[in-house]
């Protein structure tokens, strides 16, 4: 399976990031990832249907919030905190403080 | 005309505020209001249709981002920066820095 595309940090937009965050499931994933170095999709799925979740992961990747690393058949997700902090200082700290 | 309802600052939610911000027109209004004490609806409308804008103003009020003060036939809008700063420290500074 090929790697996912991730936008370059210079291409992130505030509006895109805010849209990525503006959903209860995606916000929960982001806040979960704020507490761990990375998490498998399975760990983040909980008991939610996989079909709807793959859309949320895609939105999170496209907005620059999340990086997905593929290792074998497992997908490991991490928050792009450094990139986000550089582009939008203070934003993620405010979001993760909740 | 009666005053608008505005949610109490303790009732604001991070998700609600993020949803309020996650639209290009609403984000522009918020960033405009970050630079001025208040602005009339007319000043914020630009050349956009009034009909679609009243929805955006309502979303901004409901999410706790915006306060509308009625004076005669004019509506004056301001950012609820103090309330937002108290509830979500650093969030609005990050949004307004863009």
UniProtKB/TrEMBL annotation, chains A, B:
SUPFAM superfamilies: Winged helix' DNA-binding domain (SSF46785)
Domain HTH arsR-type span(s) in chain numbering: 6-98
Matching Pfam families: HTH_20 (PF12840)
SMART domains (alphabetical): HTH_ARSR
Descriptive protein name: ArsR family transcriptional regulator
Organism (species): Asaia krungthepensis NRIC 0535
């Amino acid at each position: 399976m090929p790697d996912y595309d991730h936008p370059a940090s210079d291409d992130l937009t505030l509006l895109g990031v805010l849209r990525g965050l503006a959903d209860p499931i995606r916000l929960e994933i982001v806040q979960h990832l704020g507490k761990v170095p990375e998490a498998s999709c399975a760990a983040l799925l909980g008991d939610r249907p996989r079909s709807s979740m793959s859309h949320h992961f895609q939105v999170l990747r496209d907005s620059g919030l999340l990086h997905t690393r593929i290792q074998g058949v497992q997908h490991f997700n991490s928050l792009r905190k450094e990139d986000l902090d550089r582009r939008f200082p203070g934003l993620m700290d405010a979001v993760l403080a909740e």
